[in-house]
Amino acid sequence: MEQRTDSPYPRRDRPVLAIIGVLLVVSTVLFVRSDRMRDFWYYQYTFKQMVAERLGEEKARQVPGGLQQVWVPALRRADRCVTCHQAVAWKGFETADEPYRTHPPEPLRNHPIERFGCTPCHGGQGWAVDTYEAHGQVAHWEEPLLSRELGEAYSLADNTNALMQMNCNVCHRYDRVTKGMEAINHGKALLRDKGCRACHVINGRGGTIGPDLTNVGDKAPEQYDYTRMYGQRTAFAWHVAHFKEPRALISDTVMPNFHLTTKDAQALAMLVLSWRRTPMPADYVPGAPRTDPVTAEEAHAEQEMKTGPGAWFVKTGCFVCHSIGAFGVKSPAQIGPDLSNAVEDVQARFGKTIDDFLANPTGTMAVVLARQIILSPEQKQEAIRNLRAAFAEYQRQKEEGARSGGAPKLQGSH
Amino acid sequence: MSDLTSRAGAAPRGPAAPAGPAAPAAAASAPGVHPRPLWSLRPESDRASGDAVVSNFLLHWFPAKALKASLDWNYSLWLGTISAALLLLLTLSGMPLLFLYVPSVERAYQSIKDIEYVITFGSWIRSVHRLAAHLMVAVVALHLARVFLTGAYKNGAGRGQRREWNWVIGVAMLLLTLFLSFTGYLLPWDQLAYWAVTVGTNIASSIPFAGAKIRELLLGGRVIEQPTLIRFYVLHIVALPGLLGVLFVYHMWRIRKDGGLARADREALLRERAEVAPARTKTYTLLGIARGTAPTIRASSVEAADVTVNAVPDLTRRAAIVNLGTIALLSILAVFIRSPLEEPANALVTPNPAKAPWYFLWLQEIVTDTTLHIGSFTINGALIGGVILPGLLVTLLTVWPWLDRSPAGAAGVWFGRDRRTQNLVFVLLALGVIALTLVGTFCRGPYWHFYWPWQAWPEIPGRI
Question: Given B71, B317, B462, which is nearest A17 (Cβ)?
Fold first, then answer.
């Protein structure tokens, strides 16, 4: 047996190591448990039971389990609300309690869930999957769920569910009246009646006595002065109190007291808090211009084309390729020759009269008249009448031009 | 050969061992050749114990024999090992986060939300990472305090010792730890991150002449934006950990070159006085230094059986206790202490108060306390509190081994009598830093007004 140094340590250190081994097992159990324990397992189980009860086992098997989300790439939002609120798209749960209630179908018709998600309208924290975090009732989340309960906490007049209209107005800001947004509509009417713009710039328009309110909804809640305020200390409560009696909050303000009712003050507070810089893609905002600007002259010329002597060519679609210079019709594409002198031009090009050509067209026109612009014999006669009228006008202008030294201008190729 | 076969090795080698002729036995006894393919954590002899150290890659930096005195819980408090364990944990927990975190100002915050709410174990992993980072700052600082208070940066009995340089490397590693923690602070891109980095880099900008340039270099511009985030990110995941890893390896290697802990020198000195002859023969191998005299390890060549134990298993067991214990403790803490995530970074809204990370709060406290208002003039304290004072302290710490003229005997013992004055000054300074940190952390509210911890701050208003 080789030498072996004695050691006093094993007797003391081995039990310590064993305890640490136990602690490692305990910690594993703890962190796995804390990761798995989620509210939604209970809600999903209950909803499955409800579906089985009302619609049968077959349907209950279709209820998805585990984490669910609506991912809206355009808004960069992942709303996991549907993990618990599974009934949103199910029919037959209209009267159930939340979170098992069917979403009212009316707002979804114009705002499909796949395109809008949940939180852009309802508020709350879509990333979260536990009740309090998801409803935004936690520190460091400034967008609480705009629920009826919150409205009740503010004792909203008329409709306690109106707070959500603030989020509607992020997109519907430039609407004069929006269906279903009574509180905000009321606020907008007050805005016009009371002449707020006399002192405030709103959306780039207004006086400069008061501050610019265009993006006042983005002002941080810490930036209001609450020293002379009682009760809830929130930006919303501040605005309500301020609208009712401006001088009570800011002693040296020049803003007059408009003697607004609670309902008025609340509607206006909702309205101003909805004025935010939230970057929504342009195609989410109703009324945002999505066409090229048209000058007055261009609009006038277009109207002339539609109603003038060349209207038939515009209506029938000839003008897509052909200008009819004599009638002032200008083709946007100008692919084909000007039809003003078609009566003689067809003879020169194809060696047949305009009547024969329209009866038996060749080349491109054969294809166009067979597939795109299909004319009945009567319509062809009308075409010939119009072409002759155009030619007459062309010749008249030509003579006039010869007298005054210019010639009518033909447009187009070939 | 049978006496070399441990229990662990017996099973696989069972049939071969008795059948083997004399040749394998001769080969096994040759220098550098180890009779067993696998090392044992429960060696039955000193030789097997030494082999375990030599043939194991992870253990090869251990000595074959460890001084009992160096293994004491109450000498080193194992603070260096705890820091290393935390560094290991930070690396391990950082790996999954690398796959999940997106270093972009548009997506960083969302990726943290996902880690918090839907990634399997994500919240726990992030908490482990954050807690380990905070603890590492504290433990590394405590380790530095231990080394100072035991005078362990002093060279002792061995030749070729460079303990003072290992101290300098240690100071550099403390600064790296602070900077690593600071760069990690920005990554979640929330209000806490944004404004802590604002405070930190504004202090840096008070450096005379070059301040503005240094701030611009740190931020990659004049405001905290995407260039800042990517800078801090790359520093946090590549540059600083790489540098820290290199210094860590060199730090450990130097400890071996310097003959172990300073306490080993002390043992050597005391034993020489007692004139106990060291053991003549060695029954273990040690990285080829077994033959001849080895001046590089003479400092720790106190080999009497009554003061040493085999590194395997006694040192390895304690290393396992400290490492696994740190991991277990942190893992449990991370379940109960969730990591905060404030509102998304917003350059227009300053949280009140805007606080630096806790380990810089003593500096922020000094900055505000040295900011004087005389009439309408304001003398900014950032230069004194943010640059001169910490610069002076770090410089003093770095050069202290050369200023400390106490005898070698003062090293390797807590509060050595010959180093009483400097230890006292160090403790007072440390207490001052701790007191200022506590005041900054717990007693400063909005507008940096003083609040007792039990006093309520003014209510922070919400939006709706």
Answer: B317
